[in-house]
From TrEMBL:
Pathway: Amino-acid biosynthesis; L-proline biosynthesis; L-proline from L-glutamate 5-semialdehyde: step 1/1. Catalyzes the reduction of 1-pyrroline-5-carboxylate (PCA) to L-proline. GO terms for molecular function: pyrroline-5-carboxylate reductase activity. Belongs to the pyrroline-5-carboxylate reductase family. This is Pyrroline-5-carboxylate reductase. Residues 159-263 form the Pyrroline-5-carboxylate reductase dimerisation domain. The gene is proC. Residues 3-96 form the Pyrroline-5-carboxylate reductase catalytic N-terminal domain. It comes from Saccharothrix violaceirubra. NADP(+) binds at A67, V68, K69, P70. Keywords: Amino-acid biosynthesis, Cytoplasm, NADP, Oxidoreductase, Proline biosynthesis.
Amino acid sequence: MTTIAVLGAGKIGEALLSGLLDGGRPAGDLLFTEKHAKRSAELTGRYGVEGVSVGEAAKRADVLVVAVKPQDIEPLLDQLVGDLAPGTLVVSLCAGLPTALFERRLPAGTPVVRVMPNTPMLVGEAMSAISAGRHAGEEHLDLVEELLGTVGKVVRVPESQQDAVTALSGSGPAYFFYLVEAMIDAGILLGIPRELAGSLIIQSAVGAATMLAEGGQHPVILREAVTSPAGTTIMAIRELEKHGVRAALLAAIEAARDRSVELGNAHEKG
């Protein structure tokens, strides 16, 4: 059996552990690292998975899933380099960090797969995009697809597209949350109690997402079906266009892409 170690048991790391267990992985085939002893004990009690040091994880695991913040990657790589077993697959969930960074810092020939997940992993509905490094083959991508398939959907993309993916789907849930927040505020402005406004908007979002996911129709077609001549919806759409909402979204996603590139460049000489 493959032993998998999750390095960094924050929300995303814990969600992956939970998904792997729900998908049938035995707790004995999983490990995790967590620098806070109390948090480590809580996770072991909750899932029955052993918490270990980074060095021990490197020695024992066949797959290391790196789920730390990008700014914490350098000290983690320093801890890994001396203990990493030959052939260990390294799976990076770190936003903006290229596979080349890991390949430079880890033993020659280490297979690396870069992943951009998103926070719906917490409810088993992640969108994860994966890319192979120079030494990762089809068998490594297949394994990563299998692992991440327990917490959502997985697509393969060239690594050159990962910064754009980070801006679109990695940060994407935040854009929807922002929009829902604004719509709830609008409901309050119109005299609807906050709790009721939240219920109305959240269910509308769930229904709209289901129509997009299952109906197979382009979003323009779906929007036009709601937009009657001289009706309420077209008046709202006119205001959105007048205030440049579409242009603002384009600019925002470009800015997120640029920041992802900056995060990778910050470690270019690491």
